[in-house]
Amino acid sequence: MQCQQCKQREATTHIQRVVNGQAEEFHLCAACARESGLINEFAAPPFFNLSDLFSGFLGSSLRQAPAALAPAQRCGFCGSTLHEITQSGRVGCAACYNTFREVLEPTLARIHGALEHAGKTPAADPAVHARKQKEQALAALREQIAQAVQSEDYEEAARLRDEIRRLEGTQEEGGNDHAA
Amino acid sequence: MPHDKTNQPPAGAPHEDDVVLSTRVRLARNLRDFPFPARLSAEGRQKVAAQVRAAAAAAEDAIGPLQWIDMARLPRVKAISMAERRVISAEFACQSPQSALLLRNDEALSIMLCEEDHLRIQALCPGLALSAAFALADAADTALGKHLAYAFDDHLGYLTQCPTNLGTAMRASVLLHLPALAALGRVARLSESISKLGLTIRGAFGEGSDAEGALFQLSNQVTLGITESQALENLQALTLQIAEQERRARADALKDPQWENKVWRAYGILKYARFLESGDALKLLSYVRMGAAGGLLPVSPAVVSTLMTALQPATLALSRAADDPATRDLARAEMIREALS
Ligand SMILES: [Zn+2]
Ligand SMILES: [Zn+2]
User: Fold this and answer.
1) By residue range, what is the domain housing residue B282?
2) CA distances from B150 to A84, B98, B118, B157, B234 (A)
Protein backbone atom coordinates (compact mmCIF):
# COMPACT_ATOMS: atom_id res chain seq x y z
CA MET A 1 0.00 0.00 0.00
CA GLN A 2 1.25 3.44 -0.95
CA CYS A 3 1.88 6.20 1.57
CA GLN A 4 -1.01 8.61 1.25
CA GLN A 5 1.15 11.60 2.10
CA CYS A 6 4.19 11.36 -0.24
CA LYS A 7 2.54 8.87 -2.60
CA GLN A 8 5.95 7.30 -3.18
CA ARG A 9 7.03 4.95 -0.44
CA GLU A 10 5.23 1.95 0.98
CA ALA A 11 2.90 2.74 3.89
CA THR A 12 4.06 1.00 7.07
CA THR A 13 2.16 3.01 9.66
CA HIS A 14 -1.52 2.25 9.68
CA ILE A 15 -3.89 4.08 11.92
CA GLN A 16 -7.61 3.81 11.98
CA ARG A 17 -9.94 5.30 14.46
CA VAL A 18 -13.48 6.34 14.98
CA VAL A 19 -14.16 9.99 15.65
CA ASN A 20 -17.79 10.92 16.21
CA GLY A 21 -18.93 7.75 14.49
CA GLN A 22 -16.81 8.50 11.42
CA ALA A 23 -13.96 6.07 10.71
CA GLU A 24 -10.77 7.76 9.63
CA GLU A 25 -7.83 5.87 8.15
CA PHE A 26 -4.25 6.91 7.74
CA HIS A 27 -1.56 4.97 5.89
CA LEU A 28 1.89 6.52 6.02
CA CYS A 29 5.46 5.57 5.27
CA ALA A 30 7.95 5.74 8.14
CA ALA A 31 9.44 9.00 6.86
CA CYS A 32 6.08 10.77 6.61
CA ALA A 33 4.95 9.30 9.92
CA ARG A 34 8.09 10.69 11.54
CA GLU A 35 7.54 14.01 9.81
CA SER A 36 4.00 14.13 11.15
CA GLY A 37 5.10 13.46 14.71
CA LEU A 38 3.58 9.97 14.61
CA ILE A 39 6.98 8.45 15.18
CA ASN A 40 6.89 9.70 18.73
CA GLU A 41 4.24 7.21 19.60
CA PHE A 42 3.52 8.86 22.88
CA ALA A 43 2.35 12.02 21.20
CA ALA A 44 0.86 9.85 18.48
CA PRO A 45 -2.02 11.88 17.21
CA PRO A 46 -4.35 10.01 14.86
CA PHE A 47 -3.63 12.56 12.19
CA PHE A 48 -0.79 14.02 10.14
CA ASN A 49 -0.18 17.08 12.17
CA LEU A 50 -1.55 17.56 15.60
CA SER A 51 -1.54 21.32 15.52
CA ASP A 52 -3.36 21.35 12.18
CA LEU A 53 -6.10 19.14 13.42
CA PHE A 54 -6.23 20.68 16.84
CA SER A 55 -6.40 24.16 15.38
CA GLY A 56 -8.96 22.99 12.83
CA PHE A 57 -11.21 21.66 15.56
CA LEU A 58 -10.46 24.53 17.84
CA GLY A 59 -11.00 27.05 15.06
CA SER A 60 -14.52 25.80 14.54
CA SER A 61 -15.30 25.85 18.27
CA LEU A 62 -13.80 29.33 18.47
CA ARG A 63 -16.31 30.69 16.00
CA GLN A 64 -19.08 29.66 18.37
CA ALA A 65 -17.15 30.65 21.50
CA PRO A 66 -18.49 33.25 23.88
CA ALA A 67 -17.13 36.71 23.21
CA ALA A 68 -15.53 36.72 26.66
CA LEU A 69 -13.03 34.15 25.44
CA ALA A 70 -11.41 36.16 22.69
CA PRO A 71 -8.34 34.57 21.08
CA ALA A 72 -6.23 37.25 22.77
CA GLN A 73 -7.24 36.24 26.30
CA ARG A 74 -4.26 35.00 28.27
CA CYS A 75 -3.98 32.22 30.81
CA GLY A 76 -3.43 33.97 34.12
CA PHE A 77 -0.78 31.44 35.14
CA CYS A 78 1.44 30.82 32.12
CA GLY A 79 0.38 33.63 29.80
CA SER A 80 -0.64 31.38 26.89
CA THR A 81 -3.30 32.64 24.52
CA LEU A 82 -5.78 30.44 22.71
CA HIS A 83 -4.08 31.50 19.53
CA GLU A 84 -0.75 30.14 20.76
CA ILE A 85 -2.31 26.88 21.91
CA THR A 86 -4.03 26.52 18.58
CA GLN A 87 -0.84 27.22 16.65
CA SER A 88 1.42 24.89 18.63
CA GLY A 89 -1.03 22.12 19.46
CA ARG A 90 0.44 22.32 22.96
CA VAL A 91 -1.38 23.48 26.06
CA GLY A 92 0.63 25.92 28.20
CA CYS A 93 -0.07 24.67 31.71
CA ALA A 94 -2.59 22.90 33.92
CA ALA A 95 -4.48 26.17 34.52
CA CYS A 96 -4.97 26.63 30.76
CA TYR A 97 -7.34 23.67 30.78
CA ASN A 98 -9.52 25.62 33.22
CA THR A 99 -9.14 29.04 31.62
CA PHE A 100 -10.05 27.78 28.18
CA ARG A 101 -12.23 24.84 29.24
CA GLU A 102 -15.34 26.01 27.42
CA VAL A 103 -13.49 26.30 24.14
CA LEU A 104 -11.25 23.26 24.59
CA GLU A 105 -13.89 20.75 25.66
CA PRO A 106 -15.64 20.27 22.31
CA THR A 107 -12.22 19.77 20.72
CA LEU A 108 -11.13 17.31 23.41
CA ALA A 109 -14.39 15.41 23.01
CA ARG A 110 -13.73 15.09 19.29
CA ILE A 111 -10.17 13.86 19.85
CA HIS A 112 -11.01 11.37 22.58
CA GLY A 113 -14.67 10.56 22.07
CA ALA A 114 -15.08 10.94 25.85
CA LEU A 115 -14.74 13.68 28.43
CA GLU A 116 -14.74 11.74 31.69
CA HIS A 117 -11.55 10.34 33.15
CA ALA A 118 -11.97 6.74 34.28
CA GLY A 119 -8.47 5.82 35.44
CA LYS A 120 -6.10 6.31 38.31
CA THR A 121 -6.19 9.33 40.62
CA PRO A 122 -3.16 10.88 42.34
CA ALA A 123 -2.51 9.75 45.89
CA ALA A 124 -1.57 13.12 47.32
CA ASP A 125 -4.29 15.29 45.78
CA PRO A 126 -7.13 16.20 48.16
CA ALA A 127 -9.24 17.30 45.19
CA VAL A 128 -9.80 13.71 44.20
CA HIS A 129 -11.30 12.60 47.47
CA ALA A 130 -14.77 13.31 46.16
CA ARG A 131 -14.18 10.88 43.32
CA LYS A 132 -12.84 8.23 45.64
CA GLN A 133 -15.89 8.60 47.84
CA LYS A 134 -18.07 8.25 44.78
CA GLU A 135 -16.27 5.05 43.82
CA GLN A 136 -16.75 3.67 47.28
CA ALA A 137 -20.43 4.61 47.22
CA LEU A 138 -20.78 2.80 43.90
CA ALA A 139 -19.13 -0.32 45.27
CA ALA A 140 -21.49 -0.27 48.25
CA LEU A 141 -24.53 0.14 45.98
CA ARG A 142 -23.42 -2.79 43.85
CA GLU A 143 -23.19 -4.95 46.92
CA GLN A 144 -26.68 -3.86 47.99
CA ILE A 145 -27.98 -4.81 44.54
CA ALA A 146 -26.51 -8.27 44.85
CA GLN A 147 -28.23 -8.65 48.21
CA ALA A 148 -31.54 -7.31 46.90
CA VAL A 149 -31.42 -9.74 44.01
CA GLN A 150 -30.62 -12.60 46.33
CA SER A 151 -33.65 -11.79 48.47
CA GLU A 152 -35.66 -11.40 45.23
CA ASP A 153 -36.46 -7.77 45.95
CA TYR A 154 -36.30 -6.71 42.30
CA GLU A 155 -37.97 -3.36 42.89
CA GLU A 156 -35.22 -2.41 45.29
CA ALA A 157 -32.60 -3.74 42.86
CA ALA A 158 -34.03 -1.59 40.06
CA ARG A 159 -34.05 1.46 42.32
CA LEU A 160 -30.44 0.85 43.29
CA ARG A 161 -29.47 0.38 39.67
CA ASP A 162 -31.04 3.75 38.81
CA GLU A 163 -29.09 5.28 41.62
CA ILE A 164 -25.88 3.77 40.30
CA ARG A 165 -26.66 5.07 36.83
CA ARG A 166 -27.30 8.51 38.21
CA LEU A 167 -23.98 8.43 40.07
CA GLU A 168 -22.06 7.12 37.14
CA GLY A 169 -23.57 9.31 34.49
CA THR A 170 -23.99 7.44 31.23
CA GLN A 171 -21.17 4.92 31.69
CA GLU A 172 -23.10 1.77 32.63
CA GLU A 173 -24.66 -0.37 29.93
CA GLY A 174 -26.79 -3.40 30.72
CA GLY A 175 -25.60 -3.85 34.26
CA ASN A 176 -27.09 -7.32 34.51
CA ASP A 177 -23.93 -9.00 35.63
CA HIS A 178 -24.89 -8.71 39.28
CA ALA A 179 -28.40 -10.04 38.71
CA ALA A 180 -27.16 -13.06 36.77
CA MET B 1 -0.04 -24.53 15.14
CA PRO B 2 -1.64 -23.68 18.48
CA HIS B 3 0.70 -22.30 21.09
CA ASP B 4 1.92 -25.21 23.15
CA LYS B 5 0.68 -24.70 26.69
CA THR B 6 3.14 -27.24 28.04
CA ASN B 7 5.89 -25.18 26.52
CA GLN B 8 5.30 -22.18 28.77
CA PRO B 9 8.47 -20.31 29.66
CA PRO B 10 9.90 -21.01 33.10
CA ALA B 11 9.24 -18.43 35.79
CA GLY B 12 11.22 -15.29 35.06
CA ALA B 13 11.63 -16.06 31.35
CA PRO B 14 9.92 -13.77 28.85
CA HIS B 15 6.44 -14.69 27.59
CA GLU B 16 5.42 -15.01 23.93
CA ASP B 17 8.92 -13.95 22.92
CA ASP B 18 8.78 -15.78 19.59
CA VAL B 19 6.62 -12.82 18.49
CA VAL B 20 6.81 -10.19 21.24
CA LEU B 21 10.27 -8.67 21.75
CA SER B 22 9.47 -6.26 24.53
CA THR B 23 6.76 -4.43 26.44
CA ARG B 24 6.85 -0.80 27.47
CA VAL B 25 4.49 1.26 29.62
CA ARG B 26 4.85 5.04 29.86
CA LEU B 27 2.98 7.36 32.18
CA ALA B 28 3.02 11.12 31.58
CA ARG B 29 2.82 13.33 34.64
CA ASN B 30 3.11 17.10 35.14
CA LEU B 31 3.54 19.28 38.17
CA ARG B 32 0.55 21.50 38.85
CA ASP B 33 2.56 24.56 39.83
CA PHE B 34 4.77 24.88 36.76
CA PRO B 35 4.01 25.63 33.12
CA PHE B 36 4.36 22.59 30.83
CA PRO B 37 7.89 22.06 29.40
CA ALA B 38 7.38 24.06 26.17
CA ARG B 39 6.59 27.20 28.22
CA LEU B 40 8.97 26.51 31.08
CA SER B 41 11.87 28.89 31.76
CA ALA B 42 15.39 27.62 32.41
CA GLU B 43 14.88 28.46 36.07
CA GLY B 44 11.56 26.60 36.09
CA ARG B 45 13.22 23.54 34.59
CA GLN B 46 15.77 23.53 37.37
CA LYS B 47 13.04 23.77 40.00
CA VAL B 48 11.08 20.91 38.42
CA ALA B 49 14.25 18.82 38.29
CA ALA B 50 15.01 19.57 41.94
CA GLN B 51 11.48 18.63 43.05
CA VAL B 52 11.47 15.36 41.11
CA ARG B 53 14.94 14.48 42.31
CA ALA B 54 13.91 15.07 45.93
CA ALA B 55 10.73 13.05 45.43
CA ALA B 56 12.72 10.14 43.96
CA ALA B 57 15.06 10.24 46.95
CA ALA B 58 12.12 10.29 49.36
CA ALA B 59 10.47 7.41 47.49
CA GLU B 60 13.61 5.29 47.37
CA ASP B 61 12.20 2.70 49.77
CA ALA B 62 9.34 2.04 47.37
CA ILE B 63 11.05 2.27 44.00
CA GLY B 64 14.68 1.51 44.77
CA PRO B 65 17.72 3.66 44.07
CA LEU B 66 17.68 5.52 40.78
CA GLN B 67 20.72 7.00 39.11
CA TRP B 68 20.53 10.71 38.26
CA ILE B 69 21.87 11.39 34.77
CA ASP B 70 22.43 14.93 33.60
CA MET B 71 21.81 14.57 29.86
CA ALA B 72 23.96 17.61 29.05
CA ARG B 73 26.97 15.75 30.43
CA LEU B 74 26.20 12.45 28.73
CA PRO B 75 28.01 11.90 25.40
CA ARG B 76 25.54 12.05 22.51
CA VAL B 77 26.40 8.53 21.36
CA LYS B 78 25.44 7.14 24.78
CA ALA B 79 22.14 8.99 24.70
CA ILE B 80 21.30 7.69 21.23
CA SER B 81 22.26 4.17 22.25
CA MET B 82 19.78 4.45 25.13
CA ALA B 83 17.12 5.40 22.60
CA GLU B 84 18.09 2.43 20.43
CA ARG B 85 17.68 0.21 23.48
CA ARG B 86 14.25 1.87 24.06
CA VAL B 87 15.31 3.14 27.49
CA ILE B 88 14.50 6.74 26.47
CA SER B 89 12.73 8.29 23.51
CA ALA B 90 14.67 9.40 20.44
CA GLU B 91 13.32 12.92 21.01
CA PHE B 92 14.68 12.96 24.54
CA ALA B 93 18.12 11.76 23.38
CA CYS B 94 18.41 14.70 20.98
CA GLN B 95 16.32 17.41 22.60
CA SER B 96 17.51 20.89 23.37
CA PRO B 97 17.73 22.21 26.02
CA GLN B 98 18.90 18.94 27.48
CA SER B 99 17.34 17.61 30.62
CA ALA B 100 17.86 14.87 33.17
CA LEU B 101 17.06 11.19 33.47
CA LEU B 102 16.41 9.00 36.47
CA LEU B 103 17.43 5.44 35.68
CA ARG B 104 17.33 2.18 37.58
CA ASN B 105 20.42 0.02 37.27
CA ASP B 106 18.75 -2.68 35.16
CA GLU B 107 17.19 0.02 32.91
CA ALA B 108 13.74 -1.49 33.49
CA LEU B 109 12.59 1.76 35.08
CA SER B 110 13.41 5.20 33.77
CA ILE B 111 12.00 8.67 34.30
CA MET B 112 12.58 11.32 31.65
CA LEU B 113 12.36 14.85 32.96
CA CYS B 114 10.95 17.68 30.89
CA GLU B 115 10.56 15.67 27.75
CA GLU B 116 7.09 16.30 26.31
CA ASP B 117 5.82 16.42 29.91
CA HIS B 118 7.52 17.14 33.25
CA LEU B 119 7.77 13.41 33.94
CA ARG B 120 7.64 10.43 31.66
CA ILE B 121 7.76 7.35 33.85
CA GLN B 122 8.70 4.29 31.82
CA ALA B 123 8.87 0.59 32.54
CA LEU B 124 10.47 -1.74 29.99
CA CYS B 125 10.29 -5.55 30.14
CA PRO B 126 11.32 -8.31 27.73
CA GLY B 127 8.62 -10.36 25.99
CA LEU B 128 4.92 -9.79 26.64
CA ALA B 129 4.68 -8.41 30.18
CA LEU B 130 1.97 -5.76 30.29
CA SER B 131 0.94 -6.40 33.90
CA ALA B 132 4.51 -6.45 35.16
CA ALA B 133 5.50 -3.34 33.23
CA PHE B 134 2.39 -1.47 34.34
CA ALA B 135 2.88 -2.54 37.96
CA LEU B 136 6.43 -1.18 37.89
CA ALA B 137 5.51 2.18 36.34
CA ASP B 138 2.39 2.47 38.48
CA ALA B 139 4.28 1.81 41.72
CA ALA B 140 6.88 4.43 40.81
CA ASP B 141 4.11 6.89 39.96
CA THR B 142 2.27 6.26 43.22
CA ALA B 143 5.44 6.60 45.27
CA LEU B 144 6.51 9.83 43.54
CA GLY B 145 2.95 11.16 43.67
CA LYS B 146 3.10 11.19 47.46
CA HIS B 147 5.76 13.88 47.24
CA LEU B 148 4.66 15.80 44.13
CA ALA B 149 1.60 17.92 43.36
CA TYR B 150 0.49 16.45 40.05
CA ALA B 151 -1.58 18.39 37.55
CA PHE B 152 -4.88 16.52 37.65
CA ASP B 153 -8.48 17.31 36.81
CA ASP B 154 -11.37 15.21 38.02
CA HIS B 155 -12.91 15.10 34.54
CA LEU B 156 -9.88 15.29 32.27
CA GLY B 157 -7.60 13.10 34.40
CA TYR B 158 -3.85 13.69 34.34
CA LEU B 159 -3.23 16.94 32.50
CA THR B 160 -0.68 16.75 29.73
CA GLN B 161 1.00 19.23 27.44
CA CYS B 162 -0.43 17.48 24.41
CA PRO B 163 -4.22 17.10 24.72
CA THR B 164 -4.12 13.68 22.98
CA ASN B 165 -2.62 12.17 26.17
CA LEU B 166 -5.19 13.43 28.70
CA GLY B 167 -6.87 10.98 31.05
CA THR B 168 -4.74 8.04 32.10
CA ALA B 169 -1.84 9.65 30.21
CA MET B 170 -0.66 6.07 29.70
CA ARG B 171 0.91 4.65 26.56
CA ALA B 172 1.49 0.93 26.69
CA SER B 173 3.16 -0.72 23.74
CA VAL B 174 4.52 -4.04 22.59
CA LEU B 175 7.27 -4.51 20.03
CA LEU B 176 6.15 -7.26 17.66
CA HIS B 177 8.11 -9.28 15.14
CA LEU B 178 5.69 -10.07 12.29
CA PRO B 179 7.72 -11.33 9.33
CA ALA B 180 5.07 -13.73 8.01
CA LEU B 181 2.06 -11.41 8.38
CA ALA B 182 4.05 -8.52 6.90
CA ALA B 183 5.09 -10.63 3.88
CA LEU B 184 1.45 -11.53 3.32
CA GLY B 185 0.50 -7.83 3.50
CA ARG B 186 -1.82 -8.56 6.38
CA VAL B 187 -0.55 -6.05 8.92
CA ALA B 188 -2.54 -3.26 7.27
CA ARG B 189 -5.70 -5.38 7.38
CA LEU B 190 -5.24 -6.00 11.08
CA SER B 191 -5.70 -2.31 11.65
CA GLU B 192 -9.48 -2.62 11.57
CA SER B 193 -9.73 -4.79 14.67
CA ILE B 194 -6.94 -2.70 16.13
CA SER B 195 -8.86 0.56 15.85
CA LYS B 196 -12.01 -0.94 17.36
CA LEU B 197 -10.04 -1.57 20.51
CA GLY B 198 -8.61 1.96 20.54
CA LEU B 199 -5.13 0.76 19.56
CA THR B 200 -2.70 1.60 16.80
CA ILE B 201 0.12 -0.22 14.98
CA ARG B 202 3.12 1.16 13.11
CA GLY B 203 6.49 0.11 11.76
CA ALA B 204 9.10 0.37 14.51
CA PHE B 205 12.16 1.12 12.39
CA GLY B 206 13.22 2.32 9.05
CA GLU B 207 12.26 4.47 6.16
CA GLY B 208 12.56 1.82 3.45
CA SER B 209 9.93 0.00 1.48
CA ASP B 210 8.70 -1.97 4.46
CA ALA B 211 8.95 -1.90 8.22
CA GLU B 212 12.61 -2.81 8.59
CA GLY B 213 13.10 -6.18 10.21
CA ALA B 214 9.30 -6.66 10.21
CA LEU B 215 9.22 -5.00 13.63
CA PHE B 216 6.00 -3.28 14.57
CA GLN B 217 4.86 -1.35 17.56
CA LEU B 218 1.32 -1.93 18.81
CA SER B 219 0.10 0.60 21.37
CA ASN B 220 -3.02 2.00 22.97
CA GLN B 221 -4.35 5.20 21.46
CA VAL B 222 -7.31 6.17 23.62
CA THR B 223 -6.50 7.60 27.06
CA LEU B 224 -9.63 9.46 28.19
CA GLY B 225 -12.72 7.60 29.36
CA ILE B 226 -10.94 4.26 29.72
CA THR B 227 -9.19 2.77 32.75
CA GLU B 228 -5.57 1.66 32.63
CA SER B 229 -6.60 -1.95 33.13
CA GLN B 230 -9.17 -1.85 30.31
CA ALA B 231 -6.59 -0.40 27.95
CA LEU B 232 -4.05 -3.03 29.00
CA GLU B 233 -6.59 -5.84 28.64
CA ASN B 234 -7.41 -4.70 25.10
CA LEU B 235 -3.75 -4.55 24.23
CA GLN B 236 -3.09 -7.95 25.77
CA ALA B 237 -6.01 -9.60 23.97
CA LEU B 238 -5.03 -8.20 20.60
CA THR B 239 -1.35 -9.02 21.08
CA LEU B 240 -2.20 -12.66 21.78
CA GLN B 241 -4.50 -12.73 18.76
CA ILE B 242 -1.88 -11.25 16.45
CA ALA B 243 0.82 -13.55 17.86
CA GLU B 244 -1.39 -16.56 17.11
CA GLN B 245 -2.03 -15.36 13.55
CA GLU B 246 1.68 -14.74 13.06
CA ARG B 247 2.51 -18.24 14.32
CA ARG B 248 0.06 -19.83 11.92
CA ALA B 249 1.36 -17.75 9.03
CA ARG B 250 4.95 -18.68 9.93
CA ALA B 251 4.14 -22.37 10.10
CA ASP B 252 2.58 -22.17 6.62
CA ALA B 253 5.43 -20.08 5.26
CA LEU B 254 8.14 -22.43 6.51
CA LYS B 255 6.55 -25.30 4.58
CA ASP B 256 7.25 -23.31 1.41
CA PRO B 257 10.73 -24.09 -0.03
CA GLN B 258 11.04 -20.44 -1.14
CA TRP B 259 10.68 -19.27 2.44
CA GLU B 260 12.90 -21.99 3.76
CA ASN B 261 15.51 -20.83 1.27
CA LYS B 262 15.20 -17.21 2.44
CA VAL B 263 15.76 -18.26 6.05
CA TRP B 264 18.81 -20.45 5.34
CA ARG B 265 20.21 -17.94 2.88
CA ALA B 266 19.97 -15.15 5.44
CA TYR B 267 21.61 -17.39 8.03
CA GLY B 268 24.43 -18.19 5.61
CA ILE B 269 25.07 -14.54 4.77
CA LEU B 270 25.07 -13.47 8.42
CA LYS B 271 27.39 -16.32 9.38
CA TYR B 272 29.99 -15.43 6.81
CA ALA B 273 29.59 -11.79 5.74
CA ARG B 274 32.50 -9.40 6.37
CA PHE B 275 30.54 -6.16 5.94
CA LEU B 276 26.97 -5.53 7.04
CA GLU B 277 25.02 -2.29 6.82
CA SER B 278 22.45 -1.97 9.63
CA GLY B 279 19.33 -2.03 7.44
CA ASP B 280 20.51 -5.16 5.60
CA ALA B 281 21.53 -6.84 8.82
CA LEU B 282 18.10 -6.16 10.34
CA LYS B 283 16.30 -7.60 7.31
CA LEU B 284 18.44 -10.76 7.34
CA LEU B 285 18.10 -11.16 11.10
CA SER B 286 14.34 -10.98 10.69
CA TYR B 287 14.45 -14.15 8.55
CA VAL B 288 16.89 -15.78 10.94
CA ARG B 289 14.70 -14.93 13.91
CA MET B 290 11.72 -16.49 12.18
CA GLY B 291 13.75 -19.64 11.41
CA ALA B 292 15.07 -19.73 14.96
CA ALA B 293 11.61 -19.40 16.53
CA GLY B 294 10.31 -22.08 14.15
CA GLY B 295 13.02 -24.51 15.26
CA LEU B 296 14.59 -24.52 11.79
CA LEU B 297 17.89 -22.94 12.80
CA PRO B 298 20.21 -23.82 15.70
CA VAL B 299 19.91 -20.33 17.20
CA SER B 300 17.76 -19.02 20.02
CA PRO B 301 15.33 -16.21 19.13
CA ALA B 302 16.55 -14.33 22.22
CA VAL B 303 20.08 -14.16 20.76
CA VAL B 304 18.66 -12.73 17.55
CA SER B 305 16.55 -10.18 19.47
CA THR B 306 19.66 -9.04 21.33
CA LEU B 307 21.50 -8.67 18.00
CA MET B 308 18.66 -6.59 16.56
CA THR B 309 19.38 -3.95 19.20
CA ALA B 310 23.13 -4.44 19.41
CA LEU B 311 23.59 -3.81 15.68
CA GLN B 312 22.10 -0.30 15.86
CA PRO B 313 24.72 2.35 15.02
CA ALA B 314 25.22 4.09 18.37
CA THR B 315 25.00 0.91 20.44
CA LEU B 316 27.54 -0.72 18.14
CA ALA B 317 29.78 2.33 18.19
CA LEU B 318 29.92 2.03 21.97
CA SER B 319 30.36 -1.72 22.28
CA ARG B 320 32.95 -2.06 19.51
CA ALA B 321 34.58 1.37 19.60
CA ALA B 322 33.54 1.83 15.98
CA ASP B 323 33.09 5.50 15.20
CA ASP B 324 32.70 5.74 11.43
CA PRO B 325 30.14 3.89 9.29
CA ALA B 326 32.69 1.72 7.44
CA THR B 327 34.33 0.49 10.65
CA ARG B 328 30.85 -0.12 12.05
CA ASP B 329 29.81 -2.28 9.09
CA LEU B 330 32.92 -4.35 9.64
CA ALA B 331 32.34 -4.56 13.41
CA ARG B 332 28.67 -5.36 12.89
CA ALA B 333 29.45 -8.32 10.64
CA GLU B 334 32.04 -9.53 13.13
CA MET B 335 29.66 -9.25 16.08
CA ILE B 336 26.94 -11.19 14.26
CA ARG B 337 29.38 -13.87 13.08
CA GLU B 338 30.53 -14.37 16.66
CA ALA B 339 26.98 -14.58 18.00
CA LEU B 340 25.86 -17.11 15.38
CA SER B 341 28.87 -19.42 15.47
ZN1 LIG C 1 5.31 8.98 2.74
ZN1 LIG D 1 -1.65 28.33 31.17
Assistant:
1) 257-340
2) 24, 22, 10, 10, 27
